[in-house]
Amino acid sequence: MGVGGCLALPWRCLVVLCLRLLFLVPAGVPVRSGDATFPKAMDNVTVRQGESATLRCTVDDRVTRVAWLNRSTILYAGNDKWSIDNRVVILSNTKTQYSIKIHNVDVYDEGPYTCSVQTDNHPKTSRVHLIVQVPPQIVNISSDITVNEGSSVTLMCLAFGRPEPTVTWRHLSGKGQGFVSEDEYLEITGITREQSGEYECSAVNDVAVPDVRKVKVTVN
C-alpha cells in the first residue's frame, strides 16, 4: 500500500505494518495462502450463544511465528495477547497446534478467523468461519383481546433467533389444536364465536426447544 493509500485509510496501514513487523516480512512480499494442508485450520465452527468456541490450527516444526486474527484485528501473536477482550484466551501453542478459545460467545463474534504463520520467510494463512446460533425467542406478542362477533382481528408474534425461527399460529379450541397460519401475523376476518379461545404462537429454529406463548381471544 502506497503513501496515498495510507493517507486515505490509515487504520489499514497500521494493520499491515503490524503484520509485517510481526512476521518480519519485507515490504512488497505478498501474503500468500499456503498449500492445501498447511497451515490447516478447522472446518466451520458452530456454537450456541453463550457457549465457548475453540479455534484450532494445525502447524508443524517449520513454523517460526504464529498469530490468530479476527478480520483485520490481531487476537494473539504467539503467546502474546493483542486483544483487549478478556473472553479470548490461548489454549495451546505447540509444535503441532496453535489454538485459542472464546468464552461466552455472542452474535457479534460471528465471522472469519485467520490463522497466520511464518515459515521459510513466507507468511501463509488458513481461515475458519465461526457461526453463532441463537435459540428462538418471542420478543413481542399481542395481548389478550375481546372483540364483537364479525370483527376483524390481527394477532402479532415477533420472534428472534439464528437461524431465523419459523413462527406458527395454532388455535387451541375444545376440538383440539387446529393449524391456523405460518406467519408472524395472524389475520381473522369476520371472526365467529367458534373462533374464540386461546391462540398459541410457536417459534422454532432447531437450536433449542421452541419458544411458545399464548393469546386469549374472547368473542362477544
From TrEMBL:
Q: Does the record bear Disulfide bond in its keywords?
A: yes
Membrane topology, from the record: Lipid-anchor; GPI-anchor
The answer to whether UniProt assigns keyword Transferase to this entry is no
Query: Where does the secretion signal sit in this chain?
Result: 1-27
Keywords in alphabetical order, please.
Cell adhesion, Cell membrane, Disulfide bond, Glycoprotein, GPI-anchor, Immunoglobulin domain, Lipoprotein, Membrane, Repeat, Signal
Q: Which domain of life is it from?
A: Eukaryota
Cite the Pfam families for this sequence: I-set, Ig_3
The record ties this protein, via PANTHER family, to: IGLON FAMILY OF IMMUNOGLOBULIN SUPERFAMILY-RELATED, OPIOID-BINDING PROTEIN_CELL ADHESION MOLECULE
Family per record: Belongs to the immunoglobulin superfamily. IgLON family.
* Name of the molecule in the record: OPCM protein
Gene coding for it: Opcml
